[in-house]
Each structure stands twice: as C-alpha cells, then as structure tokens.
User: Fold this.
Amino acid sequence: MARYEIIGGTQLFGSVTISGAKNAAVAILPAALLVDGVCRIENVPDISDVRILLSILEGMGVSVQRPETGVVILDSSHLSCTQPKEELVKKLRASYYLMGALLGRFHQAHVALPGGCNFAVRPIDQHIKGFRALGAKVVETDEYVKLRPGENGLKGNRISLDMASVGATVNIMIAATLLPGQTIIENAAKEPHIVDLANFLNTMGARISGAGTDTIKIHGVEQLKGGTYVIIPDQIEAGTYMAATAATGGDVLIKNVIPKHMECITSKLEEMGAEIINYDDAIRVRVKERLNHTTVKTHPYPGFPTDMQAQICVCMSLASGVSRLTESVYETRFFGYCTELESMGADIQINGKTAIVTGTDRLYGATVSAKDLRAGAALIIAGLAATGTTWVKNANYVERGYEQLIEKLSGLGAQIRRIED
Ligand code: EPU
Assistant:
C-alpha cells in the first residue's frame, strides 16, 4: 500500500498536459478483440486499469506491444480464448467489456463478474438485457456470466435501455458490431467516450451512426480490419486539474483538452468566480478571489459528471456561503469521501441525494483514506488547498485513473510525494 503526502497551501501555477481518456481506453482496448489485424492505439494513458486490462488481453493470447509512451499495438488475429483470467478480471470494472467483445467475435464468453471502484451497487442488468436481445443465452451466477448463442442464433435487434448506462451502451455496441443485421440502442449514453469508441470501431471498418445522441445504430459487418486510432483526452482528469486550480486559487493552462467536453464543468466553476479562457485545445483557469457558493446536480453527459462530484465538493467546501450538491447517478457516492473531508474541517450535511456544503475559510491537513478513484482525487485537492500536511492513504485507487499524478502536480508547484508503506 502507498500513500500521498501533501504539504498544502501552495497555489497551482503553470501548465499541465492531459492524458488520454481512461474510460475510452478501457472500452477501446477490449473492442480491439473484434479486429482481425493489427491495431495501433495512441494516447493510451499509463494507468493501472489499462495495465491490468493489457495483462488480461495478453493472457488471452493477444500480442501486446508498447513501443513508445502512450502507444499500444494489439494483434488479436490468433486469439482463441473465451475465458479471461478470473483473478485479473475481478480487479477492474471495465473488464465487463470482454463479455461484449467475446460474444461479438466468438459468439461465446465466460467472464468473471468485474471488480473496480465500489462506491455504489453497480448492477449490470442492462448489459445482460442487451445480450439477450441480441439472441444470447445468458447464464449468470454470483461469480461469472456465461454467454452462448440462443436457439435462434445471434443477430441485431432494437434495445431500449431503462437508463442511459455507459457500460451497457458500450457493451452492446461492441457485441453488435460483427453480428448480422441492424442493432438500434435507444436511450443510449452520450458520454464523449461512447463517441470515441464508435469512432474507433468505424475506423476499423464498423458501420455505427448516432453515437453522441440517444439513438445509436449499428449495421453489422463481417470483419474489422486493422488501423490506427488516437484516443480523446480525459474529460475527468482535465476537470480534476480545473478543480484543483480553483480550490488552491491558482492559474493553470490545461493542455490537450476538448473544451466542448468541459462545458458543464467550466460553467459551474465560472459561477463560482473562476475566470476561464477556452482555446482550441486548452483551457486556462484563473482564480483570484475566494470562490462563491453554487448549486450542482450530477447528470449523464452533457450534464455535470458524477465523476466530478467529489472534486467540486472540495471547491464548495472552501467557497463562501452554502452550496447544494445533488447526486443523481450513484446515490451512495458521498460516503466515499465526505467523512474524510469533514475530518479536514469541511462542513457537509448529507440529506438523501443532496449534500449541503457550508463553506469554510480553510481546510486543515489530516490523515485520510481514499475509498475510490475520484474520492482519492478529491482528497488530494483538499490536501493541496489545506493548511498543514495531509496524508492520503490507498494511493492505488488514485493510480487507477490518473497518469503521472505526482509529476504533473509537482510541475504546477504542488508539494506532493508518494510514500510506499
Ligand atoms: N445501472 C443499472 N444497471 C446497469 C447499468 C447501470 O442499474 O446494467 C445504473 C447504475 O447503477 C448507475 C447508472 O445506471 O446508477 C449509470 O451507470 P453506468 O452504467 O452509466 O456506469 P458504468 O458504466 O458502470 C461508467 C464509468 C464510471 C462513471 C459512470 C457514470 C467506466 C469504466 N466507468 O460506469 O466511471 O462513474 O459510467 O458516468 O466507463 C470513474 O471513472 O471513476 C468511474 C466510476
């Protein structure tokens, strides 16, 4: 186990470059199993979720090369395994995309139930509903999901999701790409990584339209060929650096971002008093005075992302006045960090889905524990803004999703180091 030690009170200044999107990478890498040829994928973040996923693929017989930073070359043409290693699958959430990929390519799969951040009950009934609609016979136990073709075989179908689930949209899109006929996903998720996955698959020869809207159409094709694809920048990593700049009253140029993806975060920080300048592929955040209180409700994209809930809560904790923060995707997400923030001096009352955050003049260093990836990021931001020294335990959670965190924050003037316990 490792922890971060942060000596707080330093404003962040300078520039930082955002890495490739975690949640796009963890969908695109399994989707590459559909490709009968070599895929060169660029801007792949070097984070532990990606490393585990690549080990799973290698263990299945995929040739994996990392010739230079950010580049992964995958060749799954000789793949035949339909049962990835259980102990690795259980280490991350996105391993459930192997179900869709194996069903699409081999018409069968045996995949252990995924692990990953445990901030809420995270059912996969919509994924299963999608596989069944595509004609799969599904055996589901507490340990694994087994997929086979049903009596009438596998083919495209119309699927209306009960909620706009990112995971179910990705899994159905991947599974349907090589199946005969047309699949229509209604009430599809619209997150930037959904569009990125569709663009990746289309680059390899798929016929997918409508990604980014709530109706996605997939015309099944017989084969995907190899090619090169560059993953989009990470919306949440960029948002995390924006929040860190705001919380510390700094001035940072955040490079390699798509400003359009950041709009809901940008507008909230502007409401709080941050000055934000958008460039073609960068955003500058400057905060000169104490932040103002605001109201935020999380929503699927293009709404304010649940994955930024904890980071904005730190900004609210330091703002003047009383802010309201309502979670509408994962109700229990507050419990991952609010108690820890309170131990640093924050004043947060949780009332069902809403946290009432009364701003305080300052937070104080403490020993706190990251319980999931974004909670950990938020506690680091709190530590950067706090008076005194903060130790954030469970660095491994944070390393799931933030590439070169220490290097990037140190480059902005933060005093942070990683201590191996
Ligand atoms: N849901 C169901 N049934 C399902 C699927 C989802 O009830 O079959 C519910 C969930 O419980 C939740 C809502 O629908 O209340 C949305 O879940 P979704 O499926 O969209 O989330 P996910 O695919 O499990 C992805 C990201 C999460 C991010 C959410 C929401 C990946 C690998 N994970 O999770 O990212 O919070 O979408 O945007 O893409 C993170 O990066 O820190 C992270 C947790």
